[in-house]
Design a protein that fits this description.
Helix content: 10-25%
Structural class: alpha/beta
Largest sheet: 5 strands, mixed
Order of helices and strands: EHHEEEEHEE
Strand content: 25-35%
Distance between the termini: 36 Å
Number of strands: 7
Length: about 140
């Protein structure tokens, strides 16, 4: 087991995610407790103070699979913004909640279809709303 990396979350994302969690019925998604724990341990900062290399809501992230150096991109979104493209991941998915607040260079374990995990590294935040000046979305 590796140490959990430091998390930085914008106050806007934290407020919206807390409202989302409060709106969900009881045990409506298995990752609720994990998301709440991640929010509780995060450093909350004003949107203007989020470093440009941190994953925030609506960020697009380029990943590299450690074992193969294969790369892929995903956008971290609210559940209402999920589509069939396969290019978005919901904050309510376990991997989605694990991504929020991580920084470029951080590594996480990614569940493989059919079992097992891949180790992936956040190679680049290709788009971050805060870096683009979008502070009130």
């Amino acid at each position: 087991m590796y140490a959990k990396p430091k998390l930085i979350i914008s106050s806007l994302d934290a407020e919206r995610l807390e409202s989302l969690i409060d709106s969900l019925p009881g045990k409506s998604f298995p990752g609720k407790d994990e998301l709440e724990r991640e929010l509780a341990r995060a450093e909350i900062v004003d949107p203007e103070d989020v470093p440009p290399t941190v994953v925030t809501m609506n960020s697009t992230v380029r990943f590299e699979i450690e074992s193969s150096s294969e790369e892929f991109c995903l956008r971290l979104v609210y559940p209402k913004d999920i589509d069939a493209s396969g290019e978005r991941i919901s904050i309510l998915a376990p991997v989605g909640s694990a991504l929020l607040g991580l920084s470029q260079g951080d590594e996480i374990e990614w569940p493989k279809p059919g079992g097992g995990v891949l180790r992936v590294r956040i190679k680049e935040i290709t788009y971050q709303p805060e870096r683009a000046g979008v502070h009130h979305r």
